[in-house]
Amino acid sequence: MKTCLNCDEPLTGPFCHVCGQKASTRQINWKTFLEDLPRSLFNLEHGFWYTLKELTLRTRSALDGYVKGKRVLFFKPIQYAILGITVYTLLQAFNPLDPPAIEGLREENELYGTGYAVGKLIKDNLKFFWLLGIFFYALPAKLLFRKYNFTEHMVVCAYVLGHTALLACLSLPFYSVPIMFNPFIYLFMGVMYFRLFRDSVNPLGTFGAVIGHLLMCVFIYFALPIAYYYVFN
Ligand SMILES: [Zn+2]
């Protein structure tokens, strides 16, 4: 009997039922490499474009469906968050609008006034801080939207952070600020949570919960680095 070349399990179909590897594993050479290239590129893009499209057009059915198990076509949630945040951070870092916008922010924003060191700490670790949001933003979400368990909220949050970062890239030509200071991020976040948890009987209640969630997220995010700074310095 043929066995899986990856895990030695006897094969019963076109895919290994234990590890999922294809039963027909061909030798890697130029011919097979070039033959596989379009498919691997297309599949990667397919998952990404599909996720981007579904989250934009059908936020609720996409996210709710994913949580309930309709997952195979989607880009993985943490990967989506990392990708979106990386794209935003790179575009923002190389944006010629960047320096003046930061200067303006430093004068207006109290966070920068609290001490240059706190501002610098956030600025240097921005991407990392924002990714931690997958955990920290799920806390108020769990409190206000009881529909999912905590880890399901983390998955939703990963998609929301990735998606809002990608959408907010569109604001960069006009308005270039680090990700956590971009108001469009919070606007898109609110819209996505509203669409996902919209209660048709009580839309005003959902709206209130969305606003509460945003306020708690902003509080957590601006209190966190300050607390970190005072504990470790
Ligand atoms: Zn296997």
**For this entry, what is the oligomeric state of its chains?**
single chain
Largest sheet: none
Count of DSSP helices?
11
Kindly report the average pLDDT value.
85
Bound molecules: zinc ion
Elements, N to C (H/E): HHHHHHHHHHH
Rg result: 22 Å
Structural class: mainly alpha
Overall number of strands: 0
Helicity range: 55-70%
Measured between the Cα atoms of the first and last residue, the distance is 64 Å
Overview of the structural elements:
With 233 residues, the chain is mainly α. The chain folds into two domains: 51 residues, no CATH class; 175 residues, no CATH class. The protein is 69% helix and 0% strand. It is built from eleven helices and no strands. The chain is globular and about 65 Å long. Bound molecules: zinc ion. Zinc ion (ZN) binds next to loops.
What attributes does this structure have?
233 residues, mainly alpha
Question: What is the topological layout?
Answer:
Blueprint: H1 30-57, H2 59-68, H3 77-93, H4 98-108, H5 110-113, H6 116-124, H7 126-136, H8 138-144, H9 150-168, H10 183-197, H11 203-232
Helix pairs in contact: 1-2, 2-10, 3-7, 3-9, 7-9, 8-9, 9-10, 10-11
The structure holds zinc ion.
What would you say about this model in short?
It is built from 11 helices and no strands. The mean pLDDT is 85. The chain has helices at 30-57, 59-68, 77-93, 98-108, 110-113, 116-124, 126-136, 138-144, 150-168, 183-197, 203-232.
